[in-house]
Structure prediction request, 409 residues.
Amino acid sequence: MSCKQLVLDDDQRFALMKFRRSVQDVIQSNHNDAFLVRWLRARSWNAEAAEKMLRQSMKWRLQWEVETKLKDWIPPEAIQLYYPSGICGFDKDGAPIIVVPFAGLDIVGLLHSVSRQDLIRTTIQILERVLKMAAETGANNVLVIFDMDGFSLRQYAWRPAGEFIIALLQMYEANYPEILKSCYIINAPRVFAIAFNVVKKFLNEYTISKIQIFKKDPKKWKAAILSNVAPDQLPKHFGGELEDPDGNPRYVTKINQGGKVPKSFYTKKLDENSLSQDREYVTAVIKKGDKITLDFVVEEEGSFLRWEFRTEDHDIRFGITLKDADGNTTPAVRHGRVSSHQIDENGVLACQAPAIYTVTFDNTYSLLRNKKIHYCVYVAPPINKINILPTEEESDLSCLPEKVATLGL
Prediction:
């Protein structure tokens, strides 16, 4: 898509030229003007901010092996059976249509059956697949339908569930900016307003402007969807013509409905077997009103700081700060309380060098309880210095470049 087709003004064209020059070393042949404009819009046409965002996302793609192993990765059976989503067709402009029966997302069951990393990998695969489809039609964006019929806030009272949803939102905003053409949230119950007030804090204004929310009024939301989608590209349940061979109007052959994950899929308890066994773990007691700080000197650009920990019985405050060569100190992972007593906390951070990274396990807010913690934190070498592929255990430590599980609901 050319600049003329994008309808840019003079200042925007200049920002695009400046941005393209600054990222020549990382962009690929298929990264056209439309691709670059997404990042500029996400940063209000500030070329320097867009460059920083894109470079960080490129590191993130390396961490998640998006261009390599993830392409052939097969999700665990529990995800294949119970992760609700599907692609049913294209809108009138060629944008792929993703349908998510959100009430079928048993996030508690999935988090007890598979790792968070596997759920994130699955989400990345879906996004990459629809973006490839969009590129083939020249649409460069996607249309999403969230069916909230039967939605309940009950399972999101479990803190790790809320944290995970927020992590997905921030991953999307940081690495897939401006790809949303339209989003129809339909059959939204009254309680959904509470959830959306939390969710929209993690979405930019452009994304929010593309969202339309409808209550249980099929006449209104069907008319809205059909204004952009031809009936032969939409399941009958949403006002279209598509159905399964047996007449099911939800088109389940293409759209996984999710559902309650049977406990037969649940893995062993998190405190029995969820920490990796290939590295040495430290066990410590953090006294009430006290904290543990760990300093890591990073000398090689492109190194990764990895962590995994769990606490017993109670949460802990966690965060990472960065001190650069000029002595400036900035947060690398925002400090906040994490429910590591309910689900193992792990992640990876792409490091700049030279720098000192300080990892903090903070119990100063607790005046009554000591906290027992098991942790493993280490600096991994740059990817081009690794001579063998990472083990599955090491791969499971991959996480967002900016950890957001500290936010909670």
Remarks:
- The radius of gyration is 22 Å.
- The chain is about 30% helix and 25% strand.
